[in-house]
Amino acid sequence: MDSLGGAEFAPQTTYLNTASEGLAPARAMAALRAGLDNAALGRPSDDGGGRAVEAVRATFARLAGVSEQRVALGGSVALHVGLIAAALPAGSEVLVADGDFSSLVNPFAMRADLKLRSVPLDELAEAVRPGTAMVAVSSVQSADGRVADLAAIRAAARAHGARTLVDATQSAGWLPLNADDFDYTVVGAFKWLLCPRGISFLVVPRDSSELTPIFAGWVAGEDPWESCYGPVEHLARSARRFDQSHAPMGYLAAEPTLALIEELGPETIGAHDMGLAARFRTGLAALGREPVPGESAIVAVPGLGHAEDRLTRAGVRVSVRAGNLRAAVHLYNTSADVDRILEVLAE
Fold first, then answer.
1. How far is CA 9 from the centre of its chain?
2. What is the distance, to the nearest Å, from the Cα of residue 274 to the centroid of all Cα atoms in its chain?
3. What fold is seen in the domain 6-26+265-346?
4. What are the CB-based long-range contacts (under 8 Å, 24+) for 32-36?
5. Is 215 within 8 Å of 245 (Cβ atoms)?
6. What are the helix and strand counts (H, E) for the chain?
7. For helices 335-346 and 266-286, angle between their N-to-C axes, nearest 10 degrees
8. Range list of H helices, the chain
9. 211 contacts: CB under 8 Å, gap ≥ 6
10. Any bridge partners for residue 165, and if so which?
11. Which of 14, 28, 113, 245 has a 20 to 30 Å separation from 156 between CA atoms?
12. pTM of the entire structure?
């Protein structure tokens, strides 16, 4: 199976670690170098990078299946979740999955007046009960690649009047995303969306009046250039009121990167990734190793974390999470990459 990325990618290792950080395509590096050169020469963009920022917002909105008016931009998932956690009334129950990623869970845990309840991932839907205010879950688990049953979780939450918050950081880019199915969706873009670190997305409900833009600065104004001093009197009428100040260079690189994801399509990328993951699972079985069950672009192998050093020395980049050896295949990977990691593991 050939790479989908073609000439856009030229890794010098067998890179199977997108669940930690994605590789930048050539078009992103060209845009970033041009932006840095212009900044060094005293020719930064006149709009402070605003054109690229809005292009990124619009492309992500299309990938997420929502209006760009519902997309806020920031620098981390934890800040987006913190905004949502701050809006919950005291005493609210928040239901999460055991061992879910800390950036999703910890902002709720830091509010001592909330009731944080944790259950196994496969019991999450049935654990929603009257009085549950919010269900927060990662669509794909970082530690082991398990895919949440979002349809069942959504149905249970709606039946009990609970809000839903989905962290799609480990799925956006290879699994189709319909953010309209949930109240809130957050995505860190530096993994499967291949953007630079420091770019994240928050999709808010059509009526987001329950949120207060407590982290927003001047960019939250309807006319940001008129909101530079003192309190912002006229907040943006869209989700931009929840934006955090943008890092222009990151968005210069993110614009062509997200365009590539959109050109290829998450469905096509997902089929490619899942094919490679299935090849890896089959090879692991032949070696007598049993990965965490499921269909995912992330393949986690319990009891094999000790092999990371050996793989690294052989030029194979993976990671270890929660004791699992974790490999993650994406659009720039090939069958040869999978065969290489199996070869090293068989030594």
1. 21
2. 18
3. Aspartate Aminotransferase, domain 1 (3.90.1150)
4. 32/196, 32/249, 32/252, 32/253, 34/252, 35/248, 35/249, 35/252, 35/253, 36/249
5. no
6. 10, 12
7. 20
8. 26-40, 50-64, 77-87, 102-109, 124-127, 150-159, 248-264, 266-286, 308-313, 335-346
9. 83, 84, 87, 204, 242
10. 136, 184
11. 113
12. 0.95
Which CATH class, in words, describes the domain spanning 50-263? alpha beta
Pull the structure tokens for residue 297: 């672009």
Cα separation, 92 vs 38, in Å, equals: 50
| Phi and psi, residue 121, nearest 5° | -55, -45
Contacts (Cβ under 8 Å, ≥6 apart) of 56:
73, 195, 199, 251, 254, 255, 258
201 phi/psi in degrees, rounded to 5: -125, 145
- From the CA atom positions of the chain, what is the Rg in Å? 21
Residues near 263 by beta carbon (within 8 Å), at least 6 away in sequence: none
Domain assignments of the chain as residue spans, ordered by start: 6-26+265-346, 50-263
What is the mean pLDDT of each successive set of 10 residues along the chain, which is 347 residues long?
A: 87 97 96 91 75 96 98 97 97 98 98 98 97 98 97 98 98 97 98 97 95 92 90 94 93 97 97 98 96 96 95 97 96 97 95
- Other Cβ atoms closer than 10 A to 120: 10
